[in-house]
Specification:
The chain has helices at residues 13-24, 36-41, 48-59, 66-73, 80-84, 91-105, 110-123, 128-137, 144-149, 176-179, 181-193, 209-213, 217-236, 247-254, 256-259, 267-276, 280-286, 309-314, 320-327, 348-351, 353-367, 380-387, 397-405, and strands at residues 166-170, 196-200, 241-244, 277-279, 303-305, 374-377, 393-396. The protein is globular. It has three domains: 13-105, Fumarate Reductase Iron-sulfur Protein, Chain B, domain 2, CATH 1.10.1060.10; 129-284, no CATH class; 294-405, Rossmann fold (3-Layer(aba) Sandwich), CATH 3.40.50.1860. Strand 6 (374-377), helix 22 (380-387) and strand 7 (393-396) form a beta-alpha-beta unit. It contains 23 helices and seven strands. It is an alpha/beta fold. The strands form two sheets. The chain has a four-stranded parallel β-sheet, with helices on both faces.
Length: 406
């Protein structure tokens, strides 16, 4: 795609990256066939190809309109287009650049800015845990729609003691610690069974994904630096991996090297962190010879797996969890349109609720075509979002495996 960048971005790191990405696009349109918002609307500007044109015009100095902001906001950043693209267009990175430039050149209305700042501050703060506990206590009093957004509190088993020579770091997630702390305990139990001890990281915080989604690029980099500082002593001491059990967080952590590549103080450390990060499925799969023989008989159950976009499109780990579950004895039920986003997408379900609900309904139709009794997934946001729209139980697959290994 021929591009003539405007003087305000020409020659900058952002401009050079954007120009390189734009030049790989050949307008083929394969991306539109897999884009969730295009599937809902049929509008070219609600698909990746249309948004690429909007970003190109923005970077070439065209006048910024509300239309540009609206269509970029409607993107879920699911990156299904990247999986489908034969030219390897790094659409997600281009969208980050486009949104950052748009925020600088056309600030949002005051009300919109405050809503996004409040979400950013609240969801990444320690206050989210006690406030979510209050919501759980009051859950029976809440209206049905709100009640479905609050997961019932579950019994937390004991956290395994550190007793193995092999040690891994596990970020516990800012929102996940509040909404579903049992996922972290189940992950620690599975890792203990695989003879890994988990080093908890209470001094670290949000991975930065929430602020990145809300166009706060510098805030995301600040959180990345803080996490690197918190984890570095363990990394120097020989920690073998940084294990993520939330595919959205894992994708962000794997991107630290790119995020801080121009930071002279953190570039090398960030690159090292990125090489150590793995999704829990990657580690469990690599160690499957150590646990498959010890798994107890799997109870016959109608199970379906929802692959989060951040796992299958972002991290490009398509089919990994499905293979693990199959080897563990599960007969997985078929899924229709498994590549299409469920509508959760970080803060998207809060900022674009109408589109998010429409996508959730479409996703649940695809997941329930064979009448499952249980839906498994790999990201707390997807789990919470799907659970709010169905009476079928939705869990993290690592919880299922922890019980099967018990």
């Amino acid at each position: 795609m021929q591009t003539q960048l405007a003087s305000f971005i020409q020659g900058t790191a952002q401009g050079l990256e954007a120009e390189a990405i734009l030049r790989t696009c050949v307008h083929c349109g394969f991306c539109t066939a897999v884009c969730p918002t295009y599937l809902l609307t049929g509008n070219e500007l609600e698909g990746p190809r249309g948004r690429i044109y909007l970003i190109k015009q923005l970077l070439e100095g065209a006048a910024v309109t509300d239309k540009t902001q609206t269509h970029l906001d409607h993107c879920l950043t699911c990156r299904a287009c990247e999986t489908a693209c034969p030219s390897g267009v790094r659409y997600g990175h281009l969208l980050d650049i486009g949104r950052a430039v748009l925020t600088e050149r056309a600030p949002r209305p005051v009300g919109s800015r405050w809503i996004r700042r409040l979400l950013s501050a609240f969801l990444t703060s320690a206050a989210v845990i006690p406030l979510y506990r209050v919501a759980q206590w009051l859950r029976v009093l809440l209206p049905l729609q709100l009640r479905r957004l609050v997961r019932p509190r579950e019994h937390l088993p004991a956290w395994p003691q550190a007793r193995h020579a092999r040690r891994v770091l596990m970020p516990e997630g800012c929102v996940q610690r509040a909404m579903a702390p049992q996922i972290n305990v189940a992950t620690a139990q599975v890792l203990d069974a695989l003879q890994f001890s988990v080093l908890r990281t209470p001094v670290s915080g949000c991975c930065g994904a929430i602020r990145q989604h809300l166009d706060e690029s510098e805030g995301a980099r600040t959180q990345a630096r803080r996490n690197i500082d918190a984890w570095w002593p363990a990394i120097v001491a020989g920690c073998s991996a940084i294990v993520s059990n939330a595919s959205g967080c894992g994708l962000m952590l794997k991107d630290y090297g790119r995020l801080l590549k121009d930071d002279p103080l953190y570039a090398t450390k960030a690159a090292k962190v990125s090489t150590l990060v793995c999704d829990i499925a990657e580690l469990v799969y690599a160690e499957r010879a150590n646990w498959l023989s010890r798994i107890r008989a799997v109870q016959a159950q109608r199970i379906v797996f929802h692959a989060p976009c951040t796992l299958q499109h972002g991290q490009q780990r398509t089919g990994l969890v499905e293979s693990l579950l199959t080897e563990a004895g599960v007969t997985l039920l078929p899924v229709s349109e498994g590549h299409v986003c469920c509508g959760s997408a970080g803060t998207y379900s809060l900022l674009q609720p109408t589109t998010a609900r429409a996508l959730r309904e479409r996703k649940l139709q695809g997941l329930t075509i064979a009448s499952p009794e249980l839906i498994l997934s790999a990201n707390v946001g997807c789990i919470s979002h799907l659970a709010a729209g169905t009476t079928i139980r939705v869990r993290h697959w690592i919880e299922w495996l922890a019980e099967a290994l018990a």
